[in-house]
From TrEMBL:
Residues 26-156 form the Thioredoxin domain. This is TXD15 protein. It comes from Sclerurus mexicanus (tawny-throated leaftosser). Residues 1-13 have a biased composition (Pro residues). The chain crosses the membrane at residues 184-202.
Length: 220
């Protein structure tokens, strides 16, 4: 999908930031993780799931700038079919990597963040260490396996091998069913056209009554 709210480049060609290293599939990448993540203590945590930010929540409030904690953040839109197809795979990731954090946000509701991090094409996945973006997931094949490989190559953290996409992952938290967005431009155009026609009709009737002879002709 292109930029939220308008046409743009397809997801196969996401915008890249020079500061973000691209994922490498070579053996060197697997041997030398790029990001030294501090794994969180999972004691007492019974359910491992991702958190979806609402429109009033700021991503920076969920990232610790002075920490080495790592967070995988998904920028998506609910009406993008690529976001919907990715959803169940991303929903399963917190169980595969319980020591990492996972967040998702609707890019159309957080346009300033999309501009800041160059995530105008969705879906877009960034790996943060603290509050700093460290790597971007660039594969067009967005599955649990490719996501697990990406995280392992970047952090050296191995995924739980018994995790697979389940029926619950298809149900949420991220929606796997498309939600139709409102085409505000089309709606505005229709309302403007209707208003113009109504105005022109009323104006024409007013002019008819002002023209000499029209009133008598109408009365006859």
């Amino acid at each position: 999908c292109g930029p939220p709210g308008g046409p743009g480049q397809p997801p196969e060609q996401p915008l890249l930031e020079p500061v973000l290293p691209e994922e490498q599939n070579g053996t060197d990448s697997a041997k030398a993780p790029k990001v030294a993540c501090e794994e969180r203590n999972t004691t007492g945590i019974e359910r491992f799931t991702l958190h979806i930010l609402n429109v009033s929540q700021d991503l920076m409030e969920f990232l610790s700038p002075n920490s080495s904690d790592c967070t995988l953040v998904l920028f998506y839109t609910p009406w993008c079919r690529f976001s919907a197809s990715l959803a169940p795979h991303f929903n399963s990731l917190p169980r595969a990597f319980p020591t990492l954090r996972f967040l998702a946000l609707d890019a159309s509701q957080h346009s300033s963040l999309s501009t800041r991090f160059g995530t105008v094409a969705v879906p877009n996945i960034l790996l943060f260490q603290g509050a700093k973006p460290m790597a971007r997931f660039n594969h067009t094949d967005r599955t649990l396996e490719t996501l697990k490989d990406f995280i392992f190559n970047q952090t050296g953290i191995e995924a739980n091998s018994d995790v697979a996409v389940t029926e619950e992952d298809w149900e949420g938290p991220l929606p796997s069913v498309l939600t139709k967005g409102i085409d505000w431009l089309l709606l505005f155009s229709v309302l403007f056209l209707a208003s113009f026609v109504l105005y022109a009709t009323l104006r024409t009737e007013s002019i008819r009554w002002l023209i000499p002879g029209q009133e008598h002709e109408h009365q006859e």
